[in-house]
Amino acid sequence: MRALLVDSDLNIAMSLIQIMRGSGFTVDHTASGREALEMLRHYDYDITVLELMLNDIEGYDVIRQARQARITTPILILSSLTRPQAKIKAFGVGVDDYMTKPFDTGELIARLQAVLRRSRGLSAARVAIGPLEIDLNAKEALVNGAPVHLTGKEYAILELLVLRRGAVLTKDAFLNHLYGGIDEPEMKIIDVFICKLRRKLQVKGAGNLITTVWGRGYVLREERTVEAEMMPAAPMLASMSA
């Protein structure tokens, strides 16, 4: 998952980046609330972690302006402000969750995962698509109950496809998700990852869940949907006047 971290305290920010990357997040950081708004407008983030006390504008203004611009990226506040009034105001302007500093690392990751699940309309950490099941907390995939051994990049691609199932994802979207604009390889690497991922799923009996949409990208659909699309159209009923 790709996250935007907004915090003016560089020491805390560096620590948070390590924690989040260790849990599978690709993290972009900015110390500026105004820059955060520009990044939210131009990049597709899965979640934002925001400190309310910034050097240029208040975090409340970041939230308010993002929501006014119809940016729906989930926002988790991680702030030094602990008073109830701060939390009430934050929820009032559109934040999704609120934590205070100092924080417990395990709780932070659990809350991030919970916010991500809710934003995708999911109530549990395990998501099933036909014979495929992924565990968002354990970062593992299973087919018919048997584990599928995936690399970190392969799992990240599969997780993105599952969370956005039914939506066509471009190769640019995968590159941004995997690398966040840092040392990105050539775009054809996505085809390689998808090919290996398909092979591993098919060997375990998952069929053709990942469909290529030529000229656009890839989409994950349930097997019955794919099969239905491949079936020939039924003949039209003869006219009543025939």
Automatic annotation (TrEMBL):
GO terms for molecular function: phosphorelay response regulator activity; transcription cis-regulatory region binding. GO terms for cellular component: cytosol; protein-DNA complex. Pfam families: Response_reg, Trans_reg_C. SMART domains: REC, Trans_reg_C. The keyword Transcription applies. GO terms for biological process: regulation of DNA-templated transcription. CDD domains: trans_reg_C (cd00383). Keywords: DNA-binding, Phosphoprotein, Transcription, Transcription regulation, Two-component regulatory system. Residues 124-222 bind DNA. InterPro entries: CheY-like_superfamily, OmpR/PhoB-type_DNA-bd, Sig_transdc_resp-reg_receiver, WalR-like, WH-like_DNA-bd_sf. This is DNA-binding response regulator. It comes from Neoasaia chiangmaiensis.
